[in-house]
Amino acid sequence: MNIPSLASISLTELQDWMKAQGLPAFRAKQVLDWRNKGLLDLDAMKNIPKQVKEVLAEHIQVQPLTLVSKQKSEDGTRKYLFALNRENQSLKHIESVLIPEKERGTVCISSQAGCVLDCPFCHTGTQKFEGNLSAAEIVAQVLAVKADLLDDPMLPELHNQVTHIVYMGMGEPLANEMEVFDSLNLLMAEDYLKLSRRRITLSTSGLVTQIERLGQDSPVNLAISLHSAINEKRNILVPINQKHDLSKLRKSLNTYPLAKARHITLEYVMLAGENDGQEDLDALVQFVNPERERVNLIRFNTYPGSAYQGSSTNVTNEFAKSLISKGIRATVRRSRGDDIMAACGQLKTAKGHS
Ligand code: SAH
Ligand code: SF4
Questions:
Q1: How many CB atoms lie within 10 A of CB 273?
Q2: Annotated catalytic residue within 95, 179, 267, 293
Q3: Can you tell me which atom of ligand 2 is nearest the CA of 205?
Q4: What atom of ligand 2 comes closest to residue 203's alpha carbon?
Q5: How far is it, in rounded angstroms, from Cα 68 to Cα 70?
Q6: How many Cα atoms are found within 13 Å in the side-chain-facing hemisphere of 351?
Q7: Which domains does the chain have, with CATH numbers?
Q8: How far is the centre of ligand 1, averaged over its atoms, from the C-alpha of 221 (Å)?
């Protein structure tokens, strides 16, 4: 299986590889210039001779993903469905989302096909787990969106740029630690996507030892799916809490290295009658360290067959106000792409229905 992938190869690796194939090493940089624009497509590489392309096509995986379909939301959000190009395996599918805003273009990427952690309000959690993505498959999602923007210039304010990455698509990124860490390094590499760690956010349900290693290896912005600050309730809403409870989570949050003027985000999906009452608020106020953490209240994004109901706008706004009155930074996350089921927690591929 160890075929190098164009999406994850470094310049020196490709130069060495070219030399070993008897090809001129300077072609490596030319090929990677195309790749870095998002073009994992030999046909598009105009300055590369046919002979080099043939050798590449034979020995290197050029495109780890095939774009199957693309949907556009009324608010400009785009959802992409990809098939993984793996040999000798039935096609697995994953989804990624582009959220265009005035001054930023955020890509929400998947790290696994499905998720084993089974948070009961999450659509991905109801999908059969189909495996971990490789670093190349993770980064290729970003490249594919970049390529899509090249082909189809959109909002001028965005300058057709991908500026931010969030690991908030399908899967639990820290349950696929090695490949996710490799993908972070590729996103940040000076000779590749050059994204600063301040522009990358990894969301996790709270795998504490992996959070510590993330802090040591690639301390990007951290978001935690908290959803309740009461152990008995969090045991149900985020079942990994049965293994890593709130006191363990607290310890790992206390030591996570923060970039200057940055906070850890505590994500809190507002579920009517479940975690939006006074005792929930009191426990949350107790839990949060306002110096280092802020709360992001997420509107529940519904999907067919979901057993939960989102809290009303009124309850959500009051919850935010109460947090703010206690000196806690709190925001209500605007839902994006809900009409095409592209919002947080709604990703589940058709292939994943079982
Ligand atoms: N597995 C990781 C990252 C993916 S989910 C994690 O759990 O953090 C990204 C965020 O969306 C998480 O905070 C998750 O709890 C939340 N989420 C899941 N289902 C949701 C839904 N139906 N509506 C709103 N948010 C949801
Ligand atoms: Fe997995 Fe995150 Fe969904 Fe929980 S919320 S099932 S950890 S993807």
A1: 10
A2: 95
A3: 7
A4: 2
A5: 7
A6: 15
A7: 11-59 (1.10.150), 65-353 (3.20.20.70)
A8: 16
For the segment 271-287, what is each residue's pLDDT rounded down to a tens digit?
999 999 999 999 999 99
Query: Two tokens at 8?
Result: 């994850």
Q: Is 344 one of the catalytic residues?
A: yes
Whole-number Å distance, alpha carbon 328 to ligand 1 midpoint, is 22
- 218 C-alpha to center of ligand 1: Å? 22
Most confident region among 67-71, 102-106, 225-229, 302-306 by mean pLDDT: 225-229
Q: Where are the beta strands (DSSP E) in 93-205?
A: 93-100, 105-108, 112-113, 131-132, 164-167, 200-204
Tens-place pLDDT, residues 78-122: 999 999 999 877 778 999 999 988 888 999 999 999 999 999 999
Q: Is the CB of 192 under 6 A from ligand 1?
A: no
Q: Residue 297 in contact with residue 270, Cβ under 8 Å?
A: yes
Indicate if ligand 1 lies below 6 Å from the C-beta of 204: yes
